[in-house]
């Protein structure tokens, strides 16, 4: 992606170098020049955010990809200013899509005085530059900012590099609230009618969390809330998806909470697991009808296995506790490679990509929906958008039953085993084929998922590491 502007702030040397910037219609006088004065605050704040994916590696600087003044930053204005930034965060040895680092979306509120109700959103006071003396804060926590975003969706169109689109009319005057969830992104709920997900780490190319729900909506699949509106940035040849507004499923509870509640009550979760299998199969069937389904021939099987091996090796480097299990885990991948070598092929299609209990919502009427089609956030976007065997999703859910059972004391492995069976039965009933019919492929995907989880937990929730590590031990010991 070409940088829309090239202001770069080198934090390591505590120096600021400014190169030429391209004029931008909404940048306002000096908007791009603001980054150097905001960088020290961002350097403290960004790495602490739940959505920051580069944890554990130092931040060495920031460069500006795009800046848009959504609300004027004029110091004489009575209300807040709102600065929309796309910022590349420089980190050594990083960058899914860019060698220097990943690009993040920030919505920064600017006020002369921060009201007490926004104290929790405070980032800090700017000490230099045009905003000196003013307070910077997380804009999404400010209802005035949230209202303004909704207004943009109600009246779509372009604002500098930002483009707002909608599929249907949106009513005015919906009260906003920030969703208080442990998330990879940030979400705002409007009047319990809509939920707006703001993507934090953004990549060139349509995000599958917009692409797949739109395709499923066109296909008439009611298992996924269909996007009502979205916004993107044009900063290079491909758009960056920035946010999606969709219907809010009021009163729905996620599968993770429900599974834990069942465990706490000493109950099985079998009708739920069966229904989840059915919902997954219906989504897969609709995705296969809506989007291409190239078969996974020998060369692509090799590629699939090579990716799994590569991820295992990378994870073992990052988490040394994995190292003793690498040979055992490799047998799962070798078994698929061997089958591929005999000319055996598999069907492939677009899938959810990161399916787990927390991505399922059960409505008050007991109807299950699937959400969050972004795929595994750590994977490069082209890979997340590539067709894959549907067992990838099945494996994700099977792992999730294991997670739920492991996070409850005393550990009840039979509970998880029964859920896994019920889920596969529900899936088979709706899909017409049982995911357990391809045991090598399923085991390889479960192994790949457990490896991903080890890395995820090591980076984000080290206390949870024993959960996927227990599965690693089991999978490494399983006969090939
Ligand atoms: N359409 C929806 N209706 C109700 N709640 C939702 C909806 N979409 C998401 N949520 C809630 O928001 C949370 C985070 O959404 P998700 O898409 O998983 O974001 P992230 O990618 O940041 O994890 C979910 O766990 C769920 O509780
Ligand atoms: O929901 P996200 O897209 O942010 O997914 C990431 O975080 C999940 C945890 O919040 C993580 O899921 C893992 O923990 C879950 C329990 O909290 C468990 O149900 C899942 O099976 C397990 O993978 C997910 O892997 C990660 O991508």
Automatic annotation (TrEMBL):
<keyword id="KW-0067">ATP-binding</keyword>
<keyword id="KW-0119">Carbohydrate metabolism</keyword>
<dbReference type="InterPro" id="IPR040999">
    <property type="entry name" value="Mak_N_cap"/>
</dbReference>
<comment type="similarity">
    <text>Belongs to the aminoglycoside phosphotransferase family.</text>
</comment>
<dbReference type="Pfam" id="PF18085">
    <property type="entry name" value="Mak_N_cap"/>
</dbReference>
<feature type="region of interest" description="Disordered">
    <location>
        <begin position="1"/>
        <end position="32"/>
    </location>
</feature>
<keyword id="KW-0418">Kinase</keyword>
<comment type="pathway">
    <text>Glycan biosynthesis; glycogen biosynthesis.</text>
</comment>
<comment type="subunit">
    <text>Monomer.</text>
</comment>
<dbReference type="InterPro" id="IPR011009">
    <property type="entry name" value="Kinase-like_dom_sf"/>
</dbReference>
<feature type="domain" description="Maltokinase N-terminal cap">
    <location>
        <begin position="45"/>
        <end position="142"/>
    </location>
</feature>
<keyword id="KW-0320">Glycogen biosynthesis</keyword>
<keyword id="KW-0808">Transferase</keyword>
<protein>
    <recommendedName>
        <fullName>Maltokinase</fullName>
        <ecNumber>2.7.1.175</ecNumber>
    </recommendedName>
</protein>
<keyword id="KW-0321">Glycogen metabolism</keyword>
<keyword id="KW-0547">Nucleotide-binding</keyword>
């Amino acid at each position: 992606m070409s940088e829309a502007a090239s202001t770069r702030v080198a934090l390591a040397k505590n120096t600021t170098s400014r190169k030429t910037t391209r004029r931008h219609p909404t940048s306002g006088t000096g908007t791009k020049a603001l980054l150097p004065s905001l960088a020290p605050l961002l350097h403290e704040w960004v790495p602490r955010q739940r959505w920051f994916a580069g944890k554990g590696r130092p931040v060495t600087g920031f460069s500006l990809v795009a800046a848009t003044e959504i609300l004027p930053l004029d110091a004489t204005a009575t209300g807040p200013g709102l600065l929309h930034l796309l910022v590349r965060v420089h980190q050594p040895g990083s960058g899914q899509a860019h060698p220097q680092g990943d690009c993040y979306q920030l919505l920064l509120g600017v006020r002369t005085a921060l009201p007490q109700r926004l104290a929790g959103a405070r980032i800090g006071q700017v000490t230099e530059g045009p905003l000196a003396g003013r307070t910077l804060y997380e804009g999404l926590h400010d209802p005035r900012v949230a209202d303004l975003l909704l207004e943009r969706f109600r009246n779509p169109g372009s604002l500098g590099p930002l483009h707002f689109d909608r599929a249907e009319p949106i009513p005015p005057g919906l009260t906003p609230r920030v969703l208080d969830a442990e998330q990879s992104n940030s979400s705002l709920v409007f009047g319990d009618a809509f939920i707006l997900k703001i993507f934090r780490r953004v990549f060139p190319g349509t995000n599958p969390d917009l692409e797949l729900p739109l395709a499923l909506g066109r296909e008439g699949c009611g298992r996924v809330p269909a996007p009502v509106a979205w916004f993107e940035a044009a900063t290079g040849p491909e758009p960056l998806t920035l946010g999606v507004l969709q219907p809010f499923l009021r009163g729905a509870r996620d599968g993770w909470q429900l599974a834990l509640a069942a465990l706490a009550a000493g109950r099985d979760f079998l009708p739920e697991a069966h229904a989840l299998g059915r919902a997954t199969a219906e989504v897969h069937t609709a995705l296969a009808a809506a989007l291409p389904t190239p078969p996974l021939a020998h060369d692509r099987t090799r590629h699939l296995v090579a990716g799994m091996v590569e991820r295992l090796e990378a994870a073992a480097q990052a988490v040394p506790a994995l190292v003793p299990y690498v040979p055992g885990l490799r047998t799962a991948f070798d078994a698929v490679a061997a089958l591929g070598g005999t000319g055996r092929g598999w069907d492939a299609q677009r899938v959810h990509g990161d399916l787990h209990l927390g991505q399922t919502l059960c409505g008050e009427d007991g109807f299950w929906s699937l959400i969050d089609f972004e795929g595994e956030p750590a994977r490069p976007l082209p890979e997340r958008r590539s067709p894959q065997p549907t067992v990838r999703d099945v494996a994700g859910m099977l792992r999730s039953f294991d997670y739920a059972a492991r996070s409850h004391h005393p550990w009840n492995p039979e509970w998880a085993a029964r859920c896994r069976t019920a889920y596969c039965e529900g899936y088979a009933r709706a899909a017409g084929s049982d995911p357990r019919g391809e045991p090598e492929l399923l085991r390889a995907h479960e192994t790949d998922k457990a490896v991903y989880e080890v890395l995820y937990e090591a980076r984000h929730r080290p206390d949870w590491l024993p959960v996927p590590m227990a599965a690693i031990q089991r999978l490494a010991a399983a006969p090939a």
